[in-house]
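To: structure desk
From: M.T.
Subject: fold request, one chain
Message: Could you run this one when you get a chance? Sequence is below, nothing fancy, just the single chain.
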Amino acid sequence: MMFENKVAIVTGAGVGIGFEICKQLAQDGASLLLNDLDETLIAKAVEKIKREGGKCIGLAGDAADVSFIQRMVDEAVNKFGKLNIAIANAGITLFANFFEYTPESFYKVMQLNLGGTFFLAQAAARQMKKQQTGGSILFTSSVVGHRAHKNLAVYGATKAGLEMLAKQLVIELSPYQITVNSIAPGATLTERTMEDPDYEKNWAGFNPMGRPATPTDIANAALFMVSEKAKYITGQTLIVDGGWSTMSPSPY
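Reply: Done. Structure tokens follow.
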């Protein structure tokens, strides 16, 4: 029970990587606030975790909205008494040719991927500072923050940006024993990616490990980065991609 008596907020937790992170945290004893924009998804996710004996609540809403972000922190503290871990996993990917990318799409991606991450870190860190017991903040980046990918200029820029944000916040948060790190998943089999019937086959052929990641692969890395075993690691990005970024071939 590595996370017994720990309280965590996870955004983008309805399905995929976010849900698997929550599932593993709950199995290891954490109390959780799960967030997703989709109210139905978050209700189902909470039900699944509670059915397995986990302690959690759900809060549907926009993880890019600053007032809602503060509400998540307040709800977690009101329900569970404190906040130890914040995982900014919510994000969107809008594919488009650079020459055709619209301002609306640009700012939508920036607002959630960078803005939502920044302000969750800020709200969570304020609470952790008040508690004077330290804490862990984790961002979900991407290998696309390290290697260019067709039609993902804006998404890639946000992911590279939040990795630099993690480095920058080391200066601000280390005096309060708050770590801030990122994980950078590669191609991963989730409900969204599996909508492409060729996704698994394509990425299996281009990944040195011969397969794309599973949500469990990514969640295992995330749990390590927010655990007591990683309390002396901060400002770092852990790439979890089966070696793809060392070679970077693309199926597209």
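Reply (cont.): The longest strand covers residues 178-185. Let me know if you need anything else for the meeting.
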